[in-house]
Specification:
Its EC number is 6.3.1.2. Residues 126-387 form the GS catalytic domain. This is Glutamine synthetase. By secondary structure, the chain is an alpha+beta fold. 27% of the residues lie in helices and 22% in strands. The chain contains 11 helices and 13 strands. The chain has helices at 9-15, 24-31, 127-136, 186-199, 226-245, 272-275, 280-291, 294-300, 307-310, 340-345, 361-372, and strands spanning 39-46, 53-60, 73-76, 89-99, 108-115, 143-153, 203-208, 214-223, 248-250, 265-270, 327-329, 336-338, 350-352. The strands form 2 sheets. Strands 6, 7, 8, 9, 10, 11, 12 and 13 form an 8-stranded mixed β-sheet that branches. It has a 5-stranded mixed β-sheet with strand order 2-1-5-4-3, with helices on one face. A hairpin with a 6-residue loop joins strand 1 and strand 2 (53-60). Mean pLDDT is 94; it is low at 1-13.
């Protein structure tokens, strides 16, 4: 039988980064060297785009046991689109600590808020107001679970595993698929999952999505501000794992035009009264409040005031129409889905399917709580700083 031609080396070189082809076994001998009680701490923060994450590391004399043991630091905000060069120092304020799955114990990853020179929150520091709101509603015990969809790309910007000059077969066999002709990049996905578990991120699942090279992981249940903290760290770990493999994870809500699914960040939500027997009436009341504030939520469910989501929320490919609010039991074409089991049990949670994959989870969870617990209406938000 004639032999199949070997894949071209040039095609492989274009799809993965140069750094990924370095000998990782060489790195291992350095990672495992003793540290004599010293600890490497990697500070992680959200940059001026509101979508990207940055990091830098420093040495501490001993292992921090709590977030209070990690000192504040600073960085050059003019290089992250967060300050001007003439006044560029920004403060990194540690807020949550995780184990480091890349440098291993006792080293740490630390998520930080960013403050400007005057100690006011940076424009993309949406955690600051989210924390205030979550503290106000803590007696309601808001729980969240967010389903982060993403797409793997080669460094050439083409979906990883797709033909160089064409498209894979139509959608259908890829969702939760198994087999080399159904899924692309499972090694990356499983490495990310294990890294999150090691770090202490509350990751609770993963699956291949409808479009080939598209995947999803779920984080939660998390209460209050914890949701945004854990999802942002899960995103950072995803980008770092992809860096090791030489590919790119994009959170673009519609990375491929045409008859391909977009990428969202479906948000599951409940309060304590929704989780109790008879809680369905509280779920329905919350959905009614959301229905009257659709425009406000669309504006905060992606970083560009709804423009990103307008490419995704078309009423096709398991989405609702961006201009219309809808809700239904087990309806994946609705703005809000009530799971069938919740409808049968009469209590539980509901799923807001509108947030885009590149949403800021602090903005999304804050908006849901403002509307459903604090009973805000209209497109303006209330400032609780003076209350």
């Amino acid at each position: 039988m004639p032999r199949s031609p070997a894949p071209s080396r040039r095609a492989v070189a274009m799809s993965v980064s140069h750094s990924s082809r370095l000998n990782k076994l060489v790195r291992e001998q350095y990672v495992r060297l003793p540290q004599d009680g010293l600890v490497q701490v990697t500070y992680v923060w959200i940059d001026g785009s509101g979508e990207g994450v940055r990091c830098k590391s420093r040495t501490l004399d001993k292992e921090p046991k709590s977030i209070e043991d990690v000192p504040e630091w600073n960085f050059d905000g003019s290089s992250t689109a967060q300050a001007e060069g003439s006044n560029s120092d920004m403060f990194l304020v540690p807020v949550r600590m995780f184990r480091d799955p890349f440098c291993l114990d006792p080293n740490k990853l630390v998520l930080c808020e960013v403050l400007k020179y005057n100690r006011k929150p940076a424009e993309t520091n949406l955690r600051h107001t989210c924390k205030k709101v979550m503290d106000l509603v803590k007696d309601s015990h808001p729980w969240f679970g967010m389903e982060q969809e993403y797409t793997l790309l080669g460094v050439n910007g083409h979906p990883y595993g797709w033909p160089d000059n064409g498209f894979p077969g139509p959608q259908g066999p890829y969702y939760c698929g198994v087999g080399a002709d159904k899924v692309y990049g499972r090694d990356i996905v499983e490495s990310h999952y294990k890294a999150c578990l090691y770090a202490g991120v509350k990751i609770c699942g993963t699956n291949a999505e409808v479009m080939p090279s598209q995947w999803e992981f779920q984080v939660g249940p998390c209460e209050g501000i914890e949701m945004g903290d854990h999802l942002w760290m899960a995103r950072f770990i995803l980008h770092r794992v992809c860096e090791d493999f030489g590919v790119v994870a994009t959170l673009d809500p519609k990375p491929m035009t045409g008859n391909w699914n977009g990428a969202g960040c479906h948000t599951n939500y409940s309060t304590e009264e929704m989780r109790r027997e008879g809680g369905l009436k509280h779920i329905e009341a919350a959905i009614e409040k959301l229905s009257k504030r659709h425009d406000y939520h669309i504006c905060v469910y992606d970083p560009r005031g709804g423009r990103d989501n307008s490419r995704r929320l078309t009423g096709h490919h398991e989405t609702s129409n961006i201009f219309e609010f809808s809700a239904g039991v087990a309806n994946r074409g609705a703005s809000i889905r009530i799971p069938r089991q919740v409808g049968q049990d009469g209590y539980g949670y509901f799923e807001d399917r509108r947030p885009a994959a590149n949403c800021d989870p602090y903005a999304v969870t804050e908006a849901i709580v403002r509307t459903t617990v604090l009973n805000e209406t209209g497109v303006e938000t209330k400032d609780y700083a003076d209350h």
